[in-house]
Amino acid sequence: MNRVNLAIIGGGLVGASLALALQAGAKARGWKIMLIEPFAPGDTYQPSYDARSSALSFGTRQIYERLGLWQAIYRRAEPIRQIHVSDRGRFGVTRLTALEEGVPALGYVVENAWLGQCLWQALDPEVVSWRVPSEVTHMQVLEDGYRLTLNDDTSLDCDLAVLADGGRSGLREQLGIGVRRRPYDQSALIANISPSQPHEGLAFERFTDDGPMALLPLPDNRCALVWTRQGMDAKRLAQIDDRSFLKELQGVFGYRLGTLQQVGARHLYPLTLVEAEEQVRSHLVVLGNAAHALHPIAGQGFNLSLRDVQALADTLLASQAPLGDFATLQRYREAQRPDQDLTVGFSDKVTRLFGSSQPLVAAGRNLGLLGLDLLPPAKRWFARQAMGLGTRADVQG
Protein backbone atom coordinates (compact mmCIF):
# COMPACT_ATOMS: atom_id res chain seq x y z
CA MET A 1 0.00 0.00 0.00
CA ASN A 2 1.45 3.38 -1.04
CA ARG A 3 1.01 6.49 1.09
CA VAL A 4 1.68 10.15 0.36
CA ASN A 5 1.13 13.23 2.46
CA LEU A 6 -0.98 15.07 -0.11
CA ALA A 7 -2.93 13.72 -3.08
CA ILE A 8 -4.17 16.29 -5.61
CA ILE A 9 -6.93 14.78 -7.73
CA GLY A 10 -6.74 16.72 -10.99
CA GLY A 11 -3.41 17.90 -12.41
CA GLY A 12 -4.78 20.77 -14.48
CA LEU A 13 -3.94 24.44 -13.96
CA VAL A 14 -5.42 24.63 -10.44
CA GLY A 15 -4.00 21.33 -9.17
CA ALA A 16 -0.54 21.96 -10.64
CA SER A 17 -0.53 25.51 -9.20
CA LEU A 18 -1.25 24.11 -5.72
CA ALA A 19 1.60 21.62 -6.07
CA LEU A 20 3.94 24.45 -7.04
CA ALA A 21 2.72 26.74 -4.22
CA LEU A 22 3.43 23.96 -1.68
CA GLN A 23 6.59 22.63 -3.28
CA ALA A 24 9.32 24.49 -1.37
CA GLY A 25 7.61 24.13 2.01
CA ALA A 26 6.81 20.48 1.32
CA LYS A 27 10.45 19.77 0.54
CA ALA A 28 11.53 21.35 3.83
CA ARG A 29 8.98 19.22 5.73
CA GLY A 30 9.63 16.01 3.86
CA TRP A 31 6.10 15.88 2.43
CA LYS A 32 5.39 13.86 -0.69
CA ILE A 33 2.77 15.20 -3.13
CA MET A 34 0.99 13.08 -5.74
CA LEU A 35 -0.83 14.58 -8.74
CA ILE A 36 -3.43 12.24 -10.23
CA GLU A 37 -4.50 13.25 -13.72
CA PRO A 38 -6.32 11.44 -16.58
CA PHE A 39 -4.56 13.39 -19.35
CA ALA A 40 -0.78 13.37 -19.64
CA PRO A 41 0.89 16.80 -19.81
CA GLY A 42 2.67 17.33 -23.12
CA ASP A 43 6.47 17.25 -23.18
CA THR A 44 6.62 20.31 -25.41
CA TYR A 45 4.43 23.34 -26.10
CA GLN A 46 2.72 23.20 -29.49
CA PRO A 47 1.37 26.57 -30.67
CA SER A 48 -2.09 26.39 -32.24
CA TYR A 49 -4.38 29.00 -33.73
CA ASP A 50 -7.28 27.42 -31.85
CA ALA A 51 -5.61 27.18 -28.42
CA ARG A 52 -7.95 27.91 -25.51
CA SER A 53 -6.78 30.70 -23.24
CA SER A 54 -7.35 32.26 -19.82
CA ALA A 55 -7.45 35.89 -18.71
CA LEU A 56 -5.03 36.26 -15.80
CA SER A 57 -5.66 39.22 -13.51
CA PHE A 58 -2.91 41.49 -12.24
CA GLY A 59 -3.36 39.81 -8.86
CA THR A 60 -2.66 36.43 -10.50
CA ARG A 61 0.55 37.82 -11.98
CA GLN A 62 1.63 38.79 -8.45
CA ILE A 63 0.99 35.25 -7.17
CA TYR A 64 2.99 33.66 -9.98
CA GLU A 65 5.79 36.19 -9.42
CA ARG A 66 5.91 35.06 -5.78
CA LEU A 67 6.16 31.44 -7.01
CA GLY A 68 8.99 32.32 -9.42
CA LEU A 69 6.98 31.37 -12.51
CA TRP A 70 5.90 34.68 -14.02
CA GLN A 71 9.01 35.26 -16.13
CA ALA A 72 8.36 31.98 -17.98
CA ILE A 73 4.60 32.63 -18.37
CA TYR A 74 5.17 36.17 -19.64
CA ARG A 75 7.03 34.94 -22.75
CA ARG A 76 3.65 34.02 -24.28
CA ALA A 77 1.35 36.40 -22.36
CA GLU A 78 -0.50 39.25 -24.06
CA PRO A 79 -0.93 42.27 -21.74
CA ILE A 80 -4.38 43.88 -21.42
CA ARG A 81 -3.56 47.59 -21.42
CA GLN A 82 -7.13 48.88 -21.67
CA ILE A 83 -10.64 47.50 -21.16
CA HIS A 84 -13.48 49.12 -23.09
CA VAL A 85 -16.87 48.36 -21.52
CA SER A 86 -19.97 49.34 -23.51
CA ASP A 87 -23.66 48.64 -23.96
CA ARG A 88 -24.63 48.14 -27.60
CA GLY A 89 -26.88 50.87 -28.99
CA ARG A 90 -26.63 53.04 -25.85
CA PHE A 91 -24.35 55.87 -24.80
CA GLY A 92 -23.03 54.36 -21.54
CA VAL A 93 -19.38 53.40 -21.73
CA THR A 94 -16.43 53.13 -19.37
CA ARG A 95 -12.74 52.66 -20.04
CA LEU A 96 -10.23 51.14 -17.65
CA THR A 97 -6.55 51.72 -18.40
CA ALA A 98 -3.40 50.29 -16.85
CA LEU A 99 -1.92 53.79 -16.83
CA GLU A 100 -4.75 55.16 -14.65
CA GLU A 101 -4.43 52.22 -12.25
CA GLY A 102 -0.66 52.55 -11.99
CA VAL A 103 0.07 48.98 -13.14
CA PRO A 104 1.95 47.63 -16.19
CA ALA A 105 -1.21 45.82 -17.37
CA LEU A 106 -4.76 45.28 -16.08
CA GLY A 107 -4.33 41.59 -16.82
CA TYR A 108 -2.84 39.15 -19.30
CA VAL A 109 -4.25 36.60 -21.73
CA VAL A 110 -2.32 33.32 -21.84
CA GLU A 111 -2.94 30.10 -23.72
CA ASN A 112 -3.83 27.33 -21.28
CA ALA A 113 -1.36 24.94 -22.94
CA TRP A 114 1.50 27.38 -22.37
CA LEU A 115 0.51 28.05 -18.77
CA GLY A 116 0.28 24.32 -18.15
CA GLN A 117 3.68 23.71 -19.72
CA CYS A 118 5.27 26.38 -17.51
CA LEU A 119 3.69 24.85 -14.39
CA TRP A 120 4.59 21.24 -15.16
CA GLN A 121 8.22 22.09 -15.96
CA ALA A 122 8.56 23.96 -12.65
CA LEU A 123 7.53 20.96 -10.51
CA ASP A 124 10.32 19.18 -8.63
CA PRO A 125 10.06 15.40 -9.18
CA GLU A 126 11.70 14.81 -5.78
CA VAL A 127 8.64 16.36 -4.12
CA VAL A 128 5.83 16.06 -6.68
CA SER A 129 5.14 12.81 -8.50
CA TRP A 130 2.48 11.97 -11.09
CA ARG A 131 0.00 9.16 -11.65
CA VAL A 132 -0.95 9.74 -15.25
CA PRO A 133 -3.02 8.78 -17.13
CA SER A 134 -4.98 7.78 -14.05
CA GLU A 135 -8.33 8.47 -12.38
CA VAL A 136 -9.66 8.07 -8.85
CA THR A 137 -12.78 5.92 -8.91
CA HIS A 138 -13.50 5.73 -5.16
CA MET A 139 -12.57 7.58 -1.98
CA GLN A 140 -12.75 5.86 1.41
CA VAL A 141 -12.59 7.88 4.64
CA LEU A 142 -9.87 6.74 7.05
CA GLU A 143 -9.20 7.96 10.59
CA ASP A 144 -6.09 9.76 9.41
CA GLY A 145 -6.91 10.60 5.79
CA TYR A 146 -8.37 8.96 2.69
CA ARG A 147 -7.81 5.78 0.72
CA LEU A 148 -8.04 6.42 -3.02
CA THR A 149 -8.88 3.58 -5.40
CA LEU A 150 -7.57 4.21 -8.92
CA ASN A 151 -8.90 2.92 -12.22
CA ASP A 152 -6.06 0.37 -12.46
CA ASP A 153 -7.34 -1.20 -9.19
CA THR A 154 -4.38 0.07 -7.17
CA SER A 155 -4.85 2.07 -3.97
CA LEU A 156 -3.17 5.12 -2.49
CA ASP A 157 -3.52 6.50 1.04
CA CYS A 158 -3.05 10.18 1.85
CA ASP A 159 -3.17 12.54 4.82
CA LEU A 160 -4.95 15.22 2.77
CA ALA A 161 -6.96 14.80 -0.44
CA VAL A 162 -7.64 17.82 -2.67
CA LEU A 163 -10.47 17.57 -5.19
CA ALA A 164 -9.47 19.71 -8.18
CA ASP A 165 -11.18 17.62 -10.84
CA GLY A 166 -13.46 20.27 -12.37
CA GLY A 167 -17.02 21.52 -12.27
CA ARG A 168 -18.53 18.12 -13.09
CA SER A 169 -16.67 16.37 -10.29
CA GLY A 170 -18.06 12.86 -9.89
CA LEU A 171 -16.07 12.38 -6.67
CA ARG A 172 -17.72 15.43 -5.12
CA GLU A 173 -21.07 13.80 -5.76
CA GLN A 174 -19.82 10.42 -4.53
CA LEU A 175 -18.80 12.02 -1.22
CA GLY A 176 -22.26 13.51 -0.80
CA ILE A 177 -21.14 17.13 -1.14
CA GLY A 178 -24.14 19.09 -2.36
CA VAL A 179 -23.98 21.94 -4.85
CA ARG A 180 -26.02 25.10 -5.39
CA ARG A 181 -26.78 25.59 -9.07
CA ARG A 182 -28.09 28.74 -10.74
CA PRO A 183 -28.58 28.12 -14.46
CA TYR A 184 -28.19 31.15 -16.72
CA ASP A 185 -30.11 29.53 -19.63
CA GLN A 186 -27.21 30.61 -21.82
CA SER A 187 -24.21 29.06 -23.51
CA ALA A 188 -20.78 30.60 -24.06
CA LEU A 189 -19.41 30.32 -27.58
CA ILE A 190 -15.61 30.34 -27.45
CA ALA A 191 -13.41 30.91 -30.50
CA ASN A 192 -10.29 32.76 -31.64
CA ILE A 193 -10.65 35.64 -34.09
CA SER A 194 -8.20 37.57 -36.28
CA PRO A 195 -9.02 41.27 -36.92
CA SER A 196 -7.55 43.37 -39.74
CA GLN A 197 -6.24 46.04 -37.36
CA PRO A 198 -3.77 45.59 -34.45
CA HIS A 199 -5.57 45.10 -31.14
CA GLU A 200 -2.78 46.92 -29.23
CA GLY A 201 -3.67 45.25 -25.96
CA LEU A 202 -7.27 46.48 -25.95
CA ALA A 203 -9.95 44.20 -24.45
CA PHE A 204 -13.66 44.69 -25.07
CA GLU A 205 -16.60 43.84 -22.84
CA ARG A 206 -19.72 44.52 -24.90
CA PHE A 207 -23.26 44.03 -23.62
CA THR A 208 -26.17 43.44 -25.96
CA ASP A 209 -29.84 42.57 -25.57
CA ASP A 210 -28.96 39.02 -26.68
CA GLY A 211 -26.15 38.51 -24.15
CA PRO A 212 -22.69 39.79 -23.22
CA MET A 213 -19.57 39.45 -25.37
CA ALA A 214 -15.87 39.69 -24.53
CA LEU A 215 -13.02 40.02 -27.01
CA LEU A 216 -9.60 39.69 -25.40
CA PRO A 217 -6.16 40.30 -26.96
CA LEU A 218 -3.98 37.26 -27.73
CA PRO A 219 -0.44 36.93 -29.11
CA ASP A 220 0.01 37.02 -32.89
CA ASN A 221 -2.77 39.65 -33.18
CA ARG A 222 -5.49 37.12 -32.44
CA CYS A 223 -8.41 37.79 -30.11
CA ALA A 224 -10.18 35.35 -27.80
CA LEU A 225 -13.96 35.61 -28.18
CA VAL A 226 -16.43 34.72 -25.43
CA TRP A 227 -19.94 35.26 -26.84
CA THR A 228 -22.87 34.47 -24.58
CA ARG A 229 -26.20 33.66 -26.26
CA GLN A 230 -29.40 31.79 -25.50
CA GLY A 231 -29.18 28.00 -25.97
CA MET A 232 -30.70 27.48 -29.44
CA ASP A 233 -29.16 30.67 -30.82
CA ALA A 234 -25.75 29.63 -29.51
CA LYS A 235 -26.11 26.25 -31.27
CA ARG A 236 -27.05 28.02 -34.51
CA LEU A 237 -23.99 30.28 -34.27
CA ALA A 238 -21.76 27.29 -33.63
CA GLN A 239 -23.01 25.52 -36.75
CA ILE A 240 -23.17 28.22 -39.45
CA ASP A 241 -20.28 28.61 -41.90
CA ASP A 242 -17.30 30.84 -41.06
CA ARG A 243 -18.28 33.64 -43.42
CA SER A 244 -21.81 33.89 -42.05
CA PHE A 245 -20.52 33.74 -38.49
CA LEU A 246 -18.01 36.55 -39.01
CA LYS A 247 -20.66 38.69 -40.69
CA GLU A 248 -23.04 38.26 -37.74
CA LEU A 249 -20.28 38.87 -35.20
CA GLN A 250 -19.16 42.00 -37.05
CA GLY A 251 -22.73 43.31 -36.98
CA VAL A 252 -22.84 42.99 -33.19
CA PHE A 253 -19.26 43.99 -32.34
CA GLY A 254 -18.74 46.74 -34.92
CA TYR A 255 -15.53 47.87 -36.61
CA ARG A 256 -13.36 49.00 -33.68
CA LEU A 257 -10.70 46.48 -34.80
CA GLY A 258 -11.45 46.79 -38.50
CA THR A 259 -12.74 43.77 -40.42
CA LEU A 260 -12.92 40.43 -38.61
CA GLN A 261 -11.05 38.19 -41.04
CA GLN A 262 -10.68 34.70 -39.59
CA VAL A 263 -12.42 32.52 -37.02
CA GLY A 264 -11.06 29.28 -35.62
CA ALA A 265 -12.86 26.28 -34.17
CA ARG A 266 -15.98 27.18 -32.18
CA HIS A 267 -16.80 25.52 -28.85
CA LEU A 268 -20.01 25.73 -26.80
CA TYR A 269 -20.26 25.63 -23.00
CA PRO A 270 -23.65 25.68 -21.22
CA LEU A 271 -23.46 28.18 -18.37
CA THR A 272 -24.45 27.56 -14.76
CA LEU A 273 -23.15 29.10 -11.57
CA VAL A 274 -22.10 26.14 -9.40
CA GLU A 275 -21.01 26.40 -5.76
CA ALA A 276 -20.11 23.44 -3.54
CA GLU A 277 -21.98 23.51 -0.23
CA GLU A 278 -18.85 22.21 1.53
CA GLN A 279 -15.29 23.10 0.58
CA VAL A 280 -13.50 21.49 3.51
CA ARG A 281 -13.88 18.37 5.61
CA SER A 282 -11.36 16.66 7.84
CA HIS A 283 -8.50 15.61 5.49
CA LEU A 284 -10.36 16.99 2.41
CA VAL A 285 -10.41 20.24 0.39
CA VAL A 286 -12.54 21.01 -2.68
CA LEU A 287 -10.76 23.44 -5.00
CA GLY A 288 -11.12 25.12 -8.41
CA ASN A 289 -14.25 24.61 -10.51
CA ALA A 290 -15.26 21.75 -8.21
CA ALA A 291 -15.68 24.42 -5.51
CA HIS A 292 -17.09 27.26 -7.63
CA ALA A 293 -17.67 27.48 -11.39
CA LEU A 294 -18.45 31.05 -12.55
CA HIS A 295 -19.76 32.67 -15.72
CA PRO A 296 -16.72 33.39 -17.94
CA ILE A 297 -17.76 36.88 -19.05
CA ALA A 298 -16.22 38.62 -16.03
CA GLY A 299 -13.01 36.54 -16.31
CA GLN A 300 -12.90 35.81 -12.58
CA GLY A 301 -13.07 32.01 -12.27
CA PHE A 302 -9.45 30.88 -12.57
CA ASN A 303 -8.16 33.98 -10.81
CA LEU A 304 -10.36 33.29 -7.78
CA SER A 305 -9.23 29.65 -7.77
CA LEU A 306 -5.58 30.72 -7.79
CA ARG A 307 -6.17 33.01 -4.79
CA ASP A 308 -7.75 29.99 -3.07
CA VAL A 309 -4.64 27.97 -3.96
CA GLN A 310 -2.29 30.55 -2.47
CA ALA A 311 -4.40 30.94 0.68
CA LEU A 312 -4.59 27.16 1.16
CA ALA A 313 -0.83 26.73 0.68
CA ASP A 314 -0.06 29.55 3.11
CA THR A 315 -2.44 28.13 5.73
CA LEU A 316 -1.08 24.58 5.47
CA LEU A 317 2.55 25.71 5.64
CA ALA A 318 1.90 28.00 8.62
CA SER A 319 0.20 25.26 10.65
CA GLN A 320 1.95 23.07 13.20
CA ALA A 321 -0.98 20.62 13.22
CA PRO A 322 -0.93 17.34 11.26
CA LEU A 323 -1.73 17.70 7.57
CA GLY A 324 -5.48 17.40 7.07
CA ASP A 325 -6.36 18.84 10.49
CA PHE A 326 -9.96 20.10 10.27
CA ALA A 327 -9.40 23.27 12.31
CA THR A 328 -6.56 24.26 9.96
CA LEU A 329 -8.71 23.68 6.88
CA GLN A 330 -11.56 25.66 8.45
CA ARG A 331 -9.17 28.61 8.97
CA TYR A 332 -8.39 28.52 5.25
CA ARG A 333 -12.10 28.41 4.38
CA GLU A 334 -13.03 31.29 6.67
CA ALA A 335 -10.10 33.41 5.43
CA GLN A 336 -11.18 32.94 1.79
CA ARG A 337 -14.93 33.27 2.36
CA PRO A 338 -15.07 37.11 1.90
CA ASP A 339 -13.09 36.92 -1.35
CA GLN A 340 -15.24 34.08 -2.68
CA ASP A 341 -18.52 35.73 -1.68
CA LEU A 342 -17.53 39.07 -3.22
CA THR A 343 -16.14 37.58 -6.43
CA VAL A 344 -19.01 35.12 -6.98
CA GLY A 345 -21.52 37.89 -6.22
CA PHE A 346 -19.75 40.37 -8.52
CA SER A 347 -19.62 37.85 -11.38
CA ASP A 348 -23.25 36.79 -10.92
CA LYS A 349 -24.61 40.35 -10.67
CA VAL A 350 -22.66 41.54 -13.71
CA THR A 351 -23.96 38.54 -15.67
CA ARG A 352 -27.60 39.09 -14.67
CA LEU A 353 -27.52 42.87 -15.00
CA PHE A 354 -25.96 42.86 -18.45
CA GLY A 355 -27.85 39.80 -19.63
CA SER A 356 -31.24 41.49 -19.25
CA SER A 357 -33.03 43.12 -22.19
CA GLN A 358 -35.72 44.77 -20.02
CA PRO A 359 -35.79 48.52 -20.87
CA LEU A 360 -35.59 49.74 -17.25
CA VAL A 361 -32.68 47.42 -16.47
CA ALA A 362 -30.92 48.42 -19.70
CA ALA A 363 -31.37 52.12 -18.88
CA GLY A 364 -30.05 51.57 -15.35
CA ARG A 365 -26.91 49.74 -16.45
CA ASN A 366 -26.34 52.38 -19.14
CA LEU A 367 -26.37 55.09 -16.48
CA GLY A 368 -24.19 52.85 -14.31
CA LEU A 369 -21.51 52.60 -17.00
CA LEU A 370 -21.64 56.35 -17.52
CA GLY A 371 -21.40 56.87 -13.77
CA LEU A 372 -18.37 54.59 -13.54
CA ASP A 373 -16.58 56.77 -16.06
CA LEU A 374 -17.48 59.94 -14.13
CA LEU A 375 -16.95 58.78 -10.52
CA PRO A 376 -13.30 57.88 -9.79
CA PRO A 377 -13.98 55.94 -6.52
CA ALA A 378 -16.59 53.70 -8.19
CA LYS A 379 -14.38 53.19 -11.21
CA ARG A 380 -11.43 52.36 -8.95
CA TRP A 381 -13.50 49.70 -7.13
CA PHE A 382 -14.61 48.18 -10.45
CA ALA A 383 -11.03 48.19 -11.72
CA ARG A 384 -9.71 46.48 -8.58
CA GLN A 385 -12.36 43.77 -8.95
CA ALA A 386 -11.39 43.26 -12.60
CA MET A 387 -7.71 43.04 -11.57
CA GLY A 388 -8.44 40.45 -8.88
CA LEU A 389 -7.49 42.81 -6.04
CA GLY A 390 -10.97 43.46 -4.65
CA THR A 391 -10.45 42.06 -1.13
CA ARG A 392 -6.67 42.22 -0.90
CA ALA A 393 -5.74 45.10 1.39
CA ASP A 394 -2.08 44.03 1.17
CA VAL A 395 -1.80 44.90 -2.52
CA GLN A 396 -1.17 48.36 -3.84
CA GLY A 397 -2.69 48.57 -7.28
TrEMBL record:
Signal peptide: none annotated. GO terms for biological process: ubiquinone biosynthetic process. One of its GO terms (molecular function) is FAD binding. It comes from the Bacteria. Its EC number is 1.14.13.-. Transmembrane segments: none annotated. NCBIfam families: PRK05732.1, Ubi-OHases, UbiH. This is 2-octaprenyl-6-methoxyphenyl hydroxylase. It comes from Pseudomonas eucalypticola.
